[in-house]
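Researcher: Next entry in the queue.
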Amino acid sequence: MRLRNTLSAALHRWLGNWPHRSPVDGLGEMRLFSLADLPLMLALSPRIYTETARTLAAFRRNLTDRRWAGLQGVYSRDYMWGYAYLLFFWARYCGALPQVIEYPDRILPAEMFLRYVCEIDNFIDDADTRAFWHGSPERLKLVPRAKVVLDELLQRLVRSSATLQSCRAVAALIADFRQRSFSVIVHPDAAHDGPQPAIIRHKEATVGRLMRTWSLILARSYQVEEGLAQRASDVIFDAGMALQVIDDLSDAVVDYREGVANLFLGVVRERPDDWRLLCAQLGQSDDAYLSWLWVRQNIPRSYAAAIALRESYLDRLLGQGQAPGSSRTAELLDEIIHVIRRLGYVNS
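Model: Structure for this entry, 348 residues:
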């Protein structure tokens, strides 16, 4: 059993880095199939991977412009595939897949909004910039690379086929996110050494709100009915937070060394004995990744608590599919829950 776990961990680490070696293109230009996608194909399942590729091919036929300041600037290929799956999941949930395929350019403001926030996040991660932005949300609006993306976003929004009312609604959503989330982002110290509930609130106010806003921008761009738009944003919020737990498990070593708020580290910090063991392990290792075999064997309660946190968001997702007469919704939610759990397994 130990040999099997060791080989599995080594194979996962090698495969996990494989997609990052491939050149990254955006949704408009990326290859539909690549050997580098093998780990993701196994995580999503061959059926879901193939369906996503087929939908992406149909989506691209109607694109008027195949290049934009999208997520390829900050995402690896495996993340781009995950994004494509999530985009088409959102479209299926909202019954908007035919419109997304017919008017693919309308997704650009939502994707570019994510790129905009990622550029700000990258700027904040640079220790040399801390004196500029710390405690000053207004200064985040001046981040050069992010400002370029936002300018292009607004220009494309004006030129898009969306109505003037939709354009104004999208601009209002971005302004609301900047007002509410930037004030949290510029005070990271309040979360990273704080108790687990403080880290959860920080992540929900940043990552969760980011994903909710992305969903609502798509809904405005495709004129989704208000009630359905809100339900979809709840689904994307919970899915995004479950994925963030998985991401934080993967980023535990880097976040520990850089003093960044991390959901897994917050869970372990709640258990002093586990925290001492983890700090000792990280202090004597130069590895960029945490051994999950070591975690499961040495701090199993913390590992179980992290999985329980992920499952709490998935349970909320499952509950949203149990309303009477919503069998199709339930099927879609079962699918994304299955996908997230498989991704969690591959990452740990």
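Model: The radius of gyration is 20 Å.
Researcher: Noted, moving on.
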